[in-house]
Structures are given as structure tokens and as C-alpha cells.
Amino acid sequence: MDNVLPTRLLCLLVALSWCGCNRDAPRQLQPPPGPPTGVETVLVPEKLTSIESDEKDALGRPLRVPCATCHSLADARPMPSRPEQLQAFHRGLQFRHGELSCTSCHQADAPRSLHLATGQALPMTEVMTLCSQCHGPQARDYKAGAHGGMTGYWDLSRGGRTRNNCVSCHDPHTPKYAGAHPVMAPRPPLPHSEARAHE
Amino acid sequence: MSDTTRRNLLKGAGATLGAAAFAQAMAPLTKWTADLSFDEFLQKHYKEFTREEMAVVLRRLEEKTEREYGRKVSIQDLPPQEGVSFGYALNLSICIGCRKCAEACHQENNHDRRTGNSYIRILEMEQGSLDMERGTAFYDHDVPAPGKYYLPVQCHQCDNAPCVKVCPVQATWKEQDGVVVVDYNWCIGCRYCEAACPYHARRFNWTKPEVPADEINPDQGYLSNRIRPQGVVEKCTFCLHRTRAGRLPACLEACPTGARVFGNLLDPQSPIRWVLENKRVFVLKEELGTLPRFFYFFDK
Asked: Judging by beta carbons within 10 Å of its beta carbon (0-12, 13-18, 19+), is residue B189 exposed, middle or buried?
């Protein structure tokens, strides 16, 4: 390779002397975003239609039981007003959500569905409408795309995006976001000898 | 030795020193290896490429990555979009400091695994203070901690960018969509830009990045997340290999609390415009006049 170096350098110098360096045409930009054709999908977490059981599946995940398994029975028990009164099912349900009672959101006689402040029935899957009655500022921000996060495309002319549901992040019974232990633990500085090698 | 005059002695010493200096200057040529090809050594500045030349360079870089890292990748050079100017906003009331964004950046942008590099640094701040120089990035306890808030800092893609001005070889510049980019093959590694950035947003590749083949993100851009060579400066590009294809940046998608808002500042219907028009936004170190495109806001 050493013996070709001078030849190639010489060729380059000659080449540079008679050809300009600038690109011949200005850079082509991509076309602007078109009309939005992508769809915004709101997640419907499975906890809205089923509940974890004690049984595990082959992969070790808890088996989920659809709400209808129990709550389609005609003689479902009347709904208590406080979660501590739950004796057989939903035992140990943690509740820290202001001064609400179970029946503030759930229908006492039809526990699979919710109700709005007006008393109007609301399917469980439309829970966001219910949350929005009290949490107006969050609902407003969410509608504008400034709350709740998203995945997919910012440019709706190139693809759709997926939005979180209120209950994707907030457990409706204990809605305060839980917090976490941070990932990417801070690394100690390089060992002394290695750091010195860069000086 | 009657001709050993003072003049001859000095001449001799000068010639020896000169020869030694020349040999030292030429020493890198003795280390010339196959992985520094002539084509790479003689590569033009990004802005001088014709489209055909760019295509050749991209193929060469793809082959080089496959040879050195054992992974087939696709390196593209997506130009900016007409009518698009990027902006980013972050809700400090919502961020909990979990560093998921930094992790996503680390993976998306093919950062060196050994040093755990990322373009995002999350500072733990005392509530009531906005002085980022007093924040610490070295917290390792459950978050959010009482009395603290978290300030993720990455490149602000300043419209009046100090880093661009100080580059002695114009290896870094601002693109039409607002993103400040680096031609990693033109950068000489002087780190002036790193020193000039008031947000500590630039990183230097002290060593050749180590990334296992199966962890390499094969969707790469020439100006963004292709694996950088040793000895050059790198920075956040708002994931331009994604965002110029219409997708959201990796850090935004990874945020578990939805604190991040990204979009086109020229689109009045975009979430980013809504934030700028309806929230009390601020920028870091506004007094420096850097005109960032990265905004922060609180809910209340």
C-alpha cells in the first residue's frame, strides 16, 4: 500500500486542480408533510376488561379472568361503599383517590360498567370520559397531545400514533404515579491509569 | 576540524531538529492500515458531496460497519423536509428522573456500551432552583426523591449555536429543520464545540465505541446515529434518522410519564405549538442568547 500512496496523492492533486469542490446542485429537500391520514389509536389496557388471578400461565404470567366471568351472574352482591368491606373478591384493594367511594365511579347494580356524574351509564372501556369530569386540565392537555405520551409518528401524513389511556399510567384506585428506580446507573469515572492514557 | 564554526554547528542542529520534526509529523503514515482507506482519508465535506458521491460514501460506511462490528446496517442520508422546523418541550412537573430517555438514546444512537454514553443527562435539582450547574447527574436512589425535581438536558439545537461558531473546520452546522449536525468524518476532534456548549450537550469519543453486534441499531443516518469513529465529537440530533421519516424521537417514545412533546413548529395544529402557546415555557440560560429549540414547562 505504501508504494501506491504517492501516486494516488499526485493523481488527487491533479484532479483537484481542474475540478471544483462544490456540489453541482443544491440539496434536494423532502416534500412538506401532507394532509393527516394517520390514525390516533388510544390504548385500551386489558385491566379494563379482565383481572389478574392467582393462577399462572406457561410463561409465568398471571392468568387473567374476564370481568364477565363473575359479573354476568344475576345475583352479584351489592357493591360496598368502601374497599375495606370487600371480603371475598378484590380483597386488599388499595384505595387512595380522594374522598371517593366505590359507587362514585362504578354502578352499584352493574359493576362491569361505570357511570358519569349525571348517572348516565358508561362502558368500562370509555373510562377516559369519566376521568375527564374531574381532571379537566389533564384532559385538555391530553387532547392537545401534551399529556400522556405517544408512540409512532409525529407526522400524521406518514403514519399513525398510539396514545396511552389514563389508566395505562394511573391506577384509578391509587392514581398517583408510582415512581421508579432509575435505569442507567451512573458510572464511576474511568480508573486512574486508563484516564491518564488519554492525556 | 577547522571548519567547525558556530554557523555550521547551528545549521547541523537545525537540520537534525527539522528532520526529526518531519519524521514525527509523518509518523501516522507508518500506521496506515486497511481500516483507514484512502477514500475515507480523502473524503470531502458533507456539503460538497453530489448525490452519487454520497451514495458511494454510505455504501462504504455500511461495509465498514459490517466488517468491524459484524452487523449489516443501513445508513441513509435523509435531507430535511420542506415546511418542517423541529421543536421539543419537556414537562418538568411530570418528569420523575427515571432515565428511561437516556437509556433509549443509548440504544437508539449506538452509543459506546462500556461508558454507558447518552446524549441526555438528567440532573437532580433542588426544588426552587433553576441553576443547572448545581444539579447532579449521579443520583442512584428511588425517584422522585422528596424536595427534588429532575431536569433532563440534551442538545437544545440552538438557533444561535455557540458550538457551530467555534468549529475551526465547519464540521458542525445547523440544518434547515433546525437540527445542529456534525459530519463525523470531517470533525478533527478539537472539542472546541464541547467547551463552547453552555448545556454540556456534546460528547467526545475517547475510544472506538464498543457495541455488541446484536445490540446495534441497524437503522442509521450519516448525520445521526451511525457508529462514530474514535476521536470525534457527537451530539443529539433529535433522532433525525427517525424524525425526518416522520417518526417520534426515541427518548419521547421511551418516556413512561409522557413528559416529552415533539413536533413541527411550523404546523399550528401540532402538540408542540399548543404547548408553546398555552403553557408557561422557558429555556435554559436564556440570558446567553443561544435561542434554544428545546423548551421546559411546569404544569402549574
From this structure: middle
The torsion angles phi and psi of A9, rounded to 5 degrees, stand at -65, -40
The half-sphere exposure of A115 on its side-chain side, counting CA atoms within 13 A, is: 15
Q: Do B84 and A169 touch (CB under 8 A)?
A: no
Judged by DSSP in three states, A93 sits in: coil
| B46 grid coordinates | 458533507
**Residue B242 and residue B254 in contact, taking contact as beta carbons nearer than 8 Å:** no
pLDDT tens track for B167-207: 999 999 999 999 999 999 999 999 999 999 999 999 999 99
| Predicted ipTM > 0.95 | no
What does the angle CA A155 – CA A157 – CA A158 come to, to the nearest 5 degrees?
Answer: 75
Interatomic CA distance for residues A69 and B65, integer angstroms: 55
User: What is the mean pLDDT for each group of 10 consecutive residues in chain A (199 residues)?
Assistant: 57 52 71 95 94 88 89 74 83 90 89 92 96 97 96 97 96 94 83 51
Chain B residue numbers with beta carbons less than 8 Å from the beta carbon of A155 are 246-247, 264
What is this structure's pTM? 0.85
Over residues B10-44, the pLDDT tens digits come to 999 999 999 999 998 888 777 666 556 778 888 89
- Distance, C-alpha B37 to centroid of its chain: 24
Element (H, E) at A136: helix A136-143
Instruction: Check: CB of residue B161 under 8 Å from CB of residue B237.
Output: no
Cα end-to-end distance, chain A, whole Å: 31
Q: Which domains does chain B have, with CATH numbers?
A: 6-76 (no CATH), 86-297 (3.30.70.20)
Are residues B99 and A5, on separate chains, in Cβ contact within 8 Å?
A: no
Compute the distance between CA of residue B238 and CA of residue A162 in angstroms, rounded to an integer: 20
Is the Cβ–Cβ distance between B271 and B126 less than 8 Å? no
Interface test with A, best of B31, B139, B261 (most A CBs within 10 A): B261
**Angstrom distance (rounded) from CA B10 to CA A173:** 89
Phi, then psi, of B297 in degrees rounded to 5: -150, 160
CA-based nearest distance B71→chain A, Å: 25
CB B92 within 8 A of CB B128: no
